[in-house]
Amino acid sequence: MAMELPEGVSAGPRPGRKSVFHVVMAYDDFTSGKRAMDACNFLVFQLGDGVEWRSSMWKFDVLGHAKLNQIAIEDALEADVIIVANARNSGLPAEARKWIDGWVPGKRGQTAALVALLDFTGDQLTESAQAYAFLKEAATSADIDFLPQEIRFPENFVRVPRSAVKKDLRPAPEQPAGRRGPEGWGLND
């Protein structure tokens, strides 16, 4: 992921204590939530151990509840980075737009970034394009950095229908005795 940190964000701790770095993630579904967490983990890795982390996650449909929306707005106002992740080939629902409209005026003058994790892998791109435009305008209005990260298939990508995928999967070769496989590659890792 080629994401840059916003200007003014330093990885070093302040003398005598760690810096506090706030990340707020808003997402549409499980897959987009995972992408948001991956982006947050990337930030954790980039900033290193000298930073104390505070993060929160908000599913788009939860933002439809007035009290929870207000709490999420307050989180965004304190955030150094706001990550918004849409689902595959979808836009931003009304509750997510209302949440964004709620924090944009209060972010003006702050050093922050809006990371847009947009999925353009479906056949109909209109809603994802509208989400991109809305988020870019929100970042511009809030005078914060806009960091779009788009998922797209190349134009020459050929989709293989599920019916063409072989169903007779062979088991993986046995691991040589005494050797462990790579971490994270097992079913229960």
Low-pLDDT stretches = 9-17, 156-160, 164-182, 184-189
State the total count of DSSP E strands: 5
Q: Please give the alpha-carbon distance between the first and last residues.
A: 23 Å
Topology as a string of helices (H) and strands (E): EHEHEHEHE
Per CATH, what is the topology? Rossmann fold
Shape: globular
CATH superfamily name?
A: Flavodoxin domain
Helix proportion: 25-40%
Q: Architecture, according to CATH?
A: 3-Layer(aba) Sandwich
Question: Approximately what portion of the residues adopt beta-strand conformation?
Answer: 15-25%
Mean pLDDT, nearest integer?
77
How many domain modules?
Answer: 1
Number of helices: 4
Instruction: Kindly provide the name of the CATH class.
Output: Alpha Beta
Structural class: alpha/beta
Radius of gyration (CA) equals: 20 Å
Query: In order across it, which strands form the biggest sheet?
Result: 2-1-3-4-5
- Describe the biggest sheet? 5 strands, parallel
If you had to describe this structure to a student in words, what would you say it looks like?
With 189 residues, the protein is an alpha/beta fold. It has one domain: Flavodoxin domain (Rossmann fold), CATH 3.40.50.360. 33% of the residues lie in helices and 20% in strands. The chain has helices spanning 30-47, 66-78, 94-107, 126-142, and strands at residues 19-27, 51-59, 81-85, 113-119, 145-151. The protein has a five-stranded parallel beta sheet with strand order 2-1-3-4-5, sandwiched between helices. The chain is globular and about 45 Å long. The relative contact order is 0.15. Mean pLDDT is 77; it is low at 9-17, 156-160, 164-182 and 184-189.
